[in-house]
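Notebook entry, structure prediction.
Reason for the run: the old model in the group folder had no record of what sequence produced it. Starting over properly, with the input documented here first.
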Amino acid sequence: MPLITQNTMKRMTFLSCSTVLLFVLTSTAIFETIAFCPVPTINALTNFDTEKLKRLCGSDRVYAGDKHVSFRRKMAYRLLSFESTSSVVGDGYIMTNDDEKTQRDLRFSGVGRLYADESMEASNKVSESQSPHLDIIDRLTKSTVAVVGLGGVGSWAAEALCRSGIGNIILIDLDEICISNTNRQLHALESTVGKSKIDEMKSRLLDINPCCNITTIHDFITRDNVDEIVESLLPEITICLDAIDGQLEKTALIAACADRGIPIVTCGGAAGRMDPTKITYDDLSKAQECRLLFRCRKNLRQEYGFKRGPPAGHRKPKKFNITAVFSTEVQKSVVQQDTSSLRRCDGALGTSCFVTGTYGFVAASRIVEMIAKDEVLIPKPY
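New structure, fully documented this time:
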């Protein structure tokens, strides 16, 4: 056998490396061709089954840019993003109209499954063409929720609604982010101080769900403009979430929604409270330990003709069919007023994010539950 010379060895090594490189390049080219080609070509090359690919993807935590996801899962996720009409979005990936629904289902299937069983028992509106939890997602996607007031309660509620699959959200506020909002408001960051609350919130919500339709109304609710603003929400509005601090403005908003039969969830005062476990909800007529809701209820009865309290000898008040979020914790009393000349964006009672956030989450949970179960409460205050 002839000896292998050093030059021969070098040539063999070069050929081996070239072969490996050629294989890698060819494999990459095939992958890119499959991942970025039109639907008919994909079907011809892979003959893939959508349900199998969904199972391969696993969960909504899987996405094509994740370096820790296996090649097969990346491949499956990319293949799931192709249907009829396509458009190019960031990172070079191709998005489609039907892919919008696919991604929506991946994002919010957890919410759909959470409410599906109970909802199907309570409602007969079940589609025979798809799974029950997808009907829930459809219902949430088609709904419209207005969040009035993007402060310590409203900011957290708006995000919870977006993360629960609400397809249309209307944000109403005119305030700017103040540095003293940091302790309780979701959008209060070093980089956002001085910026519009609803503009920052809109940007954040679209980053959570790019398919969510966000409408912004740059205005404060007042007794003078409440009818005009509420009227503009019709007929699309499904539920209104009231996160206003002011007593007169809150009363006017509740009355305007009740007059038009618009379901509304109202939030009581979160200031001066430390225990988030005491936060609950009930009909506005039964709200306890909340001076703000007590004054609103009184005004609604005296100025807007809402049902009076229970007559002598009766314990149960007449319901308004208006959900109120409140805390049974006794509210802290103001010891002394702050005499500082520094402009403040918070009150003297003090607040914390774990209380204001819980108010927002409870309100959002009630709204999502009513929509998912198709049990939206229509106000009946008269």
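Summary: The CA atoms of residues 175 and 197 lie 6 Å apart.
The old model has been moved to the deprecated folder.
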